[in-house]
Amino acid sequence: MSARVRFALGIVAITVLLGERYCAAADLILAADGRSDYQIVLPNSSPSPSIEECLRQTGRLIQTAFRANGCEVAIVTEEKRELTRPAIFLGDTAFARTQGIPLSSLKSWSYVQKVVGRDVIIAGRDQPSPAKSLQERRPTWDCLGTAKGVVDFLRQYAGTRFLYPDLAPYQPISAAAKIDLLSSPSIEFLKVPKISVPADLNVTVSPRLEFNTSHPARGSFYDIANNRFPLVDSVFGGHTYERAIPRDKYADSHPEYFALINGERTAKGTGNAQYCISNPEVQELFYQDLITLIDRGFEGVDLGQPDGFRACQCENCTKLFDTGSDWGEKLWILHRMLAERVEKARPGKQVTMMSYIQTENPPKSFQKFPPNTRILLTGTNEEDIVPWRGHVVPMGFSSYIYNWCPNLGTRYTPMRTPRFVESQAKRLTRNKFQSVYRDGPGELYGLEGPVYYTMGRMFDDPEHLQAKQLVHEFCAAAFDKSAPSMIAFYDQLYHGIELYSEFLGTRSPAWV
After folding, report:
1. What HEC string does 303-329 produce?
2. 376-400 as b/e: b if 16+ CB within 10 A
3. Strands annotated E in 407-468
4. Residue 17 — pLDDT band, cuts 50, 70, 90?
5. Which residues are CB-neighbours of 359 under 8 A, at least 6 positions away?
6. Hey, what's the torsion of the CAs at 140, 144, 149, 153, to 10 degrees?
7. Residue among 295, 321, 434, 306 nearest 375 (CA)
């Protein structure tokens, strides 16, 4: 091969490489200079009227982001779209299905963002809640993966920041119909030179958390944007024995189901009901409780001893599983046995066992849990997690966190710092925690708004995001020209409460 030919081939190769880079780096312009050719396209039909309205409001959120940048875009159903104009397709549209978007295989709040020519698809798992909640305090919600895909899309490409709750508790996204999104102080639509996405955009995103909730439960755009997902198809509570065997139902007919304490059955006592767990009928009722919930439509069910647990003193309970007075081990063995039965009867369904007081330490008699098992840890500091490193927990962990539980403080005082929640989020994701329940929701948005924002956003990319970066992001959007002063204010505030946040707060080193 001559030098001239080699030189020519080299030029071709460089041109191809540059062309690939150029194509990969090229942007698809959705809006610029106050103009947009796009339309927002919704499915012709939805799984339920509620999801249909939630998708409509999700489309209106995109519409508002475009309007904030001087563009008007229409929202239409797929059958009414203009075929000559490009579109942003939301949810389970026919177009998304023709492009092979695997909606049926998406789990939880997962979604797909994909560019096809000049069109953009944002689609996730949009399904009604499979079962009615057992508790008003912990309602189940529809899953709206498309909404998660949209809020992330707007944050990444349209300068939208979700700073505060836009809806009151217990209201789904459909309730946003009564809100003027553009003037809402909860959502900031920053001006951007243009709204554009990579021309080769094609990502599938699976959020790290299945749920991140508290009482009162929330499910607004703010919550979904900040990974505060409400419960969809899981039962969560931890203390389940009395749910399985209600005292008012069984106290008269089966006093033997209840714990023998100081020579008397506690069927009609005060406080939380306590049980004789060696009784085969009691064990069967615990099992039937789990199966009944699964058959109602729940993917995950919970299992745990009563709060304020008191051990049954009958002879059979003392001899149970040959553990003597080690009641933690008795409970672990019993709960493992129940989970094994559930796995055999309803494979693929999940059982979350509570690690709490008696079961705070992992079991000593076995290291491997059944494949359907998740462990709820009520202590999530490093020293709480380390003892579990030698155990196999196939479904990972769930966390019960006490960040805003007002012990040694008040509800009206900020309790945690951005640094604290950054470390916590990194620790939880590093140790495969799949869900969060917050005991004390955190409702002090004026003083702790940057903390809640930091914690939520950390779960987007815990290995690379930092609290300092996120606090600045929050303040820049919330306070505009006053951001430097507010950053200085929050720096001093969080420095002032750091002793409480790191040392005195609930589950911190000095808490006991």
Report:
1. ECCCCCCCCCCCHHHHHHHHCCCCHHH
2. bbbbbeeebbeebeeeebebebbbb
3. 433-438
4. very low
5. 304, 305, 328, 331, 332, 335, 353
6. -90
7. 434
What are the contacts of 423-431 at 24+ separation with CB within 8 A?
Answer: 424/380, 424/455, 425/455, 425/458, 425/459, 425/462, 426/458, 426/462, 426/463, 427/380, 427/381, 427/382, 427/385, 428/380, 428/399, 429/208, 429/459, 429/462, 430/462, 431/385, 431/397
Question: What is the distance, to the nearest Å, from the Cα of residue 387 to the centroid of all Cα atoms in its chain?
Answer: 25
Contacts of 162 by beta carbon, 8 Å cutoff, 6+ apart: 151, 155, 186, 187, 221, 222, 225, 226
75, 59 Cβ separation under 8 angstroms: yes
Crossing angle (nearest 10°) for helices 145-157 and 49-68? 10
Residue among 154, 99, 106 nearest 127 (CA):
106
The residue among 96, 130, 129 whose CA lies nearest residue 113 is 96
Return all residues near 366 (Cβ < 8 A) that are at least 6 apart. 332, 333, 336
Q: What is the dihedral of CA 448, 135, 111, 394, to 10 degrees?
A: 100
Q: How far is it, in rounded angstroms, from Cα 468 to Cα 475? A: 11
Place of tokens 């539980």: 405
What separation, in Å, do the N-terminal and C-terminal C-alpha atoms of the chain show?
80
pLDDT, tens only, 451-503: 999 999 999 999 999 999 999 999 999 999 999 999 999 999 999 999 999 99
CA 56/CA 188 separation, integer angstroms? 20
pLDDT mean over 110-115: 98
